[in-house]
Amino acid sequence: ALLFNLNKMSYELTTNINKLKEKQLPDGGFPWFGGNRADSYITRYILAGLGQLYNLNIISAADQTVKAIVDKAINYLDNDLKDEAKRNKDNKTYDNHTLNSAEIHAWYTESYFTSHPHDTTMRVLLNNYLQIAEKQWNTQGLYEQGMIALTLLRNKKTEVAQMIIHSLMETAQQNDDMGMYWAKNQLGYYWYQSPIETQSLMIELFTEAGTQAKAAEEMKIWLLRNKQISNWKTTKATAQACYALLMKGDSLLNNTGTSAIKLNGEPLDEIKPDIKTDKGTGYFKTSWVDEQVKPALGKIQITNSSKTINWGAMYWQYTEQLDKITPSNTGIQLERKYFIEKQTGTGAILATVDANHIPKTGDVLKVVVALKAGRDFEYVQLKDMRPAGTEPVDILSAYKYQDGLYYYQVTKDVATNFFISQLNKGNYVFEYRLRVVQPGNYSTGISTVQSMYAPEFNAHSEGMRLIVK
């Protein structure tokens, strides 16, 4: 509720504007953390952020405190561009120099303030930049192309801007589940290699262009789906994502449409008239127990009457003997096998546990859990239950690295847990060892994997029995 408290928001906005004013150096630039040395990128980033606040009408053009900050920052940026142009002219490379990311970002930042008066030198530099950008945009990366297109668009160079948009449309991928995105939009080490910020910039471009409104809404789906099973990495990326989602187009906050849900042809609000949704989010939760659960509940029809994406999940929860559970078949798949590890003169050899190879007391078992992920996930827990009559060899919790994957392994009384902060699409194998300590016929339990913050993404292996002599 505090996030929607207008008085609190107004107070915090004023407080943060005053902080910016105090941090700004006499030359108009901003330092990174402190000190008296301006950082060019941080200054551009702050200035672009203020431009976005103007665009959203969060800050009034009549606000003199912000205007003073902006004017000083633009003056710093102008001097920065003039100095760079002078260096290029001294080296006789200005008219044919290759655009770099910093220069592209600077002019993109300036494009938020096209009404700001510029001197003759800056107008000449702008025209020269636009001419060079028209020739070099197709040699730039995805993020830089987006910045160039927005700069051209805001400076009335719509023909070339539309050429860039057309090119971006041709290289984009689209599907019903993930919306529209770019496969080459990958995380890197530099500020212009952030997938979330790049996608946000593309939404900004396509929204401002006004010719691809449907594509812009499809891009928002990718942005939101990315947040469903991972995080947006940084406060900076989160701010850009929020701006992209709220700037224009279909409003995600003001949309009042709802999803109509029918079970076996009967509306949910008639089956459960006491259901109440949360204000703002529309979230609700309900359940059926015991004899209320019938096969007909599995016939679900959902109609979304709003213009924005909605999602949810329905779970069947039931009890079954562990050794009779069959494996699930979802976007994540698990398979577990047991091997008897025997030491020989040439090293350890493995024998698959089966009717011909039955472990006996004292043997060491190697547990191998194969995990197949159909997409990228973050914050995943893999839990592998152990059969009674065995004890773990590795009892200390520790970070481990295996097959290109870092994870934290924790041994508990009945299971071994693997906590994975970053699980990229692909196939992985987890291994650990058990020692057989008691003969008998035991249920092995199952292996389960689940996204911690999107529990609808889960899977489990089949249950088995382990015979020990």
Please describe what this structure looks like.
With 469 residues, this protein is an alpha+beta fold. Helices cover 35% and strands 23% of the residues. The protein contains 11 helices and 18 strands. It has helices at residues 6-23, 40-55, 64-90, 101-110, 120-136, 142-154, 158-171, 195-209, 213-229, 235-246, 268-271; strands spanning 173-175, 179-181, 259-263, 266-267, 300-304, 332-344, 347-352, 364-373, 377-385, 390-392, 398-402, 405-411, 415-423, 426-436, 440-445, 447-451, 458-460, 464-468. The strands form 5 sheets. Strands 11-12-13-9-16-17 form a 6-stranded antiparallel sheet, with no helix packed on it. β1 (173-175) and β2 form a beta hairpin. α6 runs antiparallel to α7. The longest helix is centred in the N-terminal third of the chain and has 27 residues, at 64-90. The protein is elongated, with a radius of gyration of 29 Å. The termini are far apart. The mean pLDDT is 89.
Net shape? elongated
Distance between the termini: 62 Å
- Which strand order does the major sheet show? 11-12-13-9-16-17
Question: What structural category arises from helix and sheet content?
Answer: alpha+beta
What order do the SSEs take from the amino end to the carboxyl end, as H and E? HHHHHHHEEHHHEEHEEEEEEEEEEEEEE
Uncertain regions spanning at least 5 consecutive residues: none
Q: What's the number of helices?
A: 11
Average pLDDT score: 89
Number of strands: 18
The largest sheet is: 6 strands, antiparallel
Q: What fraction of the residues are assigned to beta strands by DSSP? A: 15-25%
Amount of helix? 25-40%
Please give the radius of gyration in angstroms: 29 Å
